[in-house]
Amino acid sequence: MRIIDLALNDLLQIFRDWKAALFMVVMPIGFTLMFGVIFGSSGGETDPRIPVILVDQDQGSLVTPFYEILSRSESVRPLYPEDDQTLETLTAQIDKGELAAIVVIPAGYSAALLAGEAPQLTVILNPQSSAGTTAQWAIQNAASRLTNVAQTAQFSAQARTALQPFADATAEQTYLEAGLSAAVTAWANPSISLKTAQTGQVQDAAAAVYSDNAFAQSSAGMMVQFAIAGLIGASEVLVLERKSGSLRRLLTTPMRRFEILLGHFLAMWVMIFMQFTLLIGFAQLVLDVPYSSAPLATLVMALATSIFAASLGLLIGALSKTADQVVIFSLIPMFILSGLGGAWMPLEFTSASFQKVAHFTPLAWAMDGFKNIIVRGQGLETVLLPAAVLLAFGALCFGVAVWRFRFEEA
Amino acid sequence: MKKTFDIALKDMTQHFRSLFALVMMFIVPLLLTGMFYVMFGGSGDEEEFQLPVTQVILVNQDAGELQFDPALFGAAPEGIADSLAASGMNSLGGYLTQILQSEGFADLMVVTLLEDADQARAAVDNQEAGVVVILPANLSAALTVPAQTAEIEFYQDPALTIGPSIVKSVVQQLVDSFVGSGITLQVTFEQLEAAGQPLDEATLQAVVGSYLQQVRALPRGENPTNPLAIQTPTGETVTTNGSTGIVGIILVGMTVMYVFFTGASNAQTIISENDRGTLPRLFTTPTPQAAILGGKILAGILTITVQMVVLIGFGQLVFQIEWGRLATLTPVVGATVLAAACFGIFLISFVKTERQAGAMIGGGVTILGMIGMLPIFVASMPNPPQFVYTASKLVPQGWAVQGLQTSMQGGAPADVLGTSLVLLLWAAVFFGVGVMRFRSRFA
């Protein structure tokens, strides 16, 4: 009972300050929305595929077929340049990361391909960006199909010539163009196609990074990040109580040291769990992030993550001697653990060594657990390991906090 | 004037003695930038971007039988076509399996074979693999039997994007090389039929024979499988300094974020001195209020200048970031320093206690900083929404980011003139409002 009284007193102090709500609710919701809108949008377009600009220097008969083939790609969509866009300005856009790729169809390309040569399309992209790499593969597939289209039309015309020569060049050209068109049509429904199925119920992964999935990433990411930011106020309470002598005075009461620490821990845990409840509720109801698809799993993850965060808060309170130090010890772990743990961007985009290091941090496990629910559509059994790891991190923080905790200023 | 300098010097000394200030000024921005440097495998030009290696499980259920000609392996890595044809493998599924397991694709995927499709899907569910590729029983038949179609199933982890997408592209390209032959013959036969040519057995054999002969004659060594010539934007058409990589952009964001933090943190001394009673005592001396406030602002300007110079220098020396021409960089840095210092005075003029100041600095600087850094957050997006750039301009941090980025991209002094003037305007507004509020408070 005394533990609960102490926790209630802490909570009263924390919630008296309206700025607690800023860190705990307003900022995470704001940033979830901001990142979600940014990464969920595609330049205001409804088509989430990566835009690729076609610069036609050829004006040949294969340009339109290439456009048509590329249009069928799941990952890129071709566009012709606007009037005010030159190759130079477009290239500058790629340099700035505003555009994924430009395909330059060089002069004489169609004629060369139809003549059985192997001309190349010039593709300008940043090979260090994931969008550039994705675009490269899609363009390469389309270019290979275009090569087949040209070879098909050319071969068909040759076969016809072998059996019955064309009356004139115009007839041959007409036959060739009909062959091109037939081959492009045939590629719309090839005899072997690829279909994508996925774990859970989430949409096509080709569009995942830039579509609704982004809310799932930003919701889980900002929630775990701001769980640590919210510790500033709670840990400050401990520092102020130590400075004012309140902690020392508590020792003169019948409460044991462990009970005092547990009371403060309980306050932090309740605060973070309330924060999680609000943020998960907001994400579910407003952003349609499917936390409710596995309610028990969500509860387990919220409990485990909040227990870890509360333990970290107790550790921050134990190690900090001043309010300044509370800010340092909260914000630095917040930034480092969030960046390392994949709260800002999926770890998939980082180097292999980075991904290995990331899982030595608790937030990577928190992200794994929440993403198993809201991205992969999985249930309780898949969050048990992440939850156990988080609890282990929590136990470690709690143990160090108990060991280092001082009830009075040194 | 001397008193102003004395106050500034004292504040700076306090600032540089504070571990908290030093950590927030230098350690945090450099640590975070370094973290991203490692995250992306280093940004140096000498280091290649490595695509993620995807764990692939292949389930080959193809029951068909085919007779392949090595010439049809257009998309297979060089040298593999002949060995495949010699291996006696006689189904498309078998050929695809061998090709995907070959050394040529080892950088992109690690392929494991399983017989049970459900077991394979379970492996993806358990995150033991990124993708399952299931080759259906009628895969080979789809190449030879008219109107027969087959679907290759990709079962993938939805949390992964780029790896599965690349595996899919590779499989697509391999399958296309076989399907393409079918399309060529199909279109040829359809056109001949439409032209009134009788398609008897002898004609069909002749056309197929002619096709295989032609395919074998295609150039195989030079570029049969790569119809693209890839250029980077820093190649022939654009002359940039090649240093606008992700780490450079991130250090710009970190620098801007934390110089504004320093501005606010520096101005916080007004509140802390007031709380401790040293400020009211200072007011009892003959030192004019303007000199006191001027000293505080000067301390901010000098501290932030040191911070920016150190961060920029460190970025250049350690991360090899080229910041652009000195004539371009200097006005941006100067205007940013003034805006950050005056922003601190403005922000702190709204708080009364040290505790309030902590939350105001933490919350205010983080929110405004992240809004200003929006163009950096979307730096890797191929088609970022335009409102991101508009929103970032609503805060001074956004203008500072733009100025530094322009300089990094090799901009001329004239290119940053407008940005610098806007930053100075922000500084003037912050200064005016902040000083007015402090004067009325301490009157």
Low-confidence spans of chain B: 43-49, 73-77, 236-244
SS-based class of chain A = alpha/beta
**What does the radius of gyration of chain B come to?**
33 Å
Amino- and carboxy-terminal Cα gap of chain A: 30 Å
How would the blueprint of this fold be written?
The complex is a heterodimer of chains A (410) and B (443).
Chain A: H1 2-16, H2 19-40, E1 50-56, H3 63-71, E2 76-79, H4 87-95, E3 101-105, H5 109-114, E4 121-125, H6 130-163, H7 169-188, E5 192-198, H8 213-229, H9 231-244, H10 246-251, H11 257-287, H12 295-319, H13 323-341, H14 352-358, H15 362-374, H16 384-404
Parallel strand pairs in A: 1-2, 1-3
Antiparallel strand pairs in A: 3-4
Chain B: H1 2-17, H2 19-39, E1 54-60, H3 80-86, H4 92-100, E2 109-113, H5 117-125, E3 131-135, H6 141-144, E4 150-156, H7 162-194, H8 201-217, E5 228-231, H9 246-276, H10 278-283, H11 289-318, H12 326-348, H13 354-372, H14 374-377, H15 387-392, H16 396-408, H17 417-442
Parallel strand pairs in B: 1-2, 1-3
Antiparallel strand pairs in B: 3-4
Helix pairs in contact in B: 1-11, 2-9, 2-11, 9-11, 9-12, 9-13, 9-16, 11-12, 12-16, 12-17, 13-16, 16-17
What does this structure look like?
The complex is a heterodimer of chains A (410) and B (443). Chain A is of the alpha/beta class. Helix content of chain A is 65%, strand content 7%. Chain A has helices at 2-16, 19-40, 63-71, 87-95, 109-114, 130-163, 169-188, 213-229, 231-244, 246-251, 257-287, 295-319, 323-341, 352-358, 362-374, 384-404, and strands at 50-56, 76-79, 101-105, 121-125, 192-198. In chain A, strand 1 (50-56), helix 3 and strand 2 (76-79) form a beta-alpha-beta unit. Chain B has 443 residues and is an alpha/beta fold. Chain B is elongated and about 115 Å long. Chain B has a 4-stranded mixed sheet, with helices on both faces.
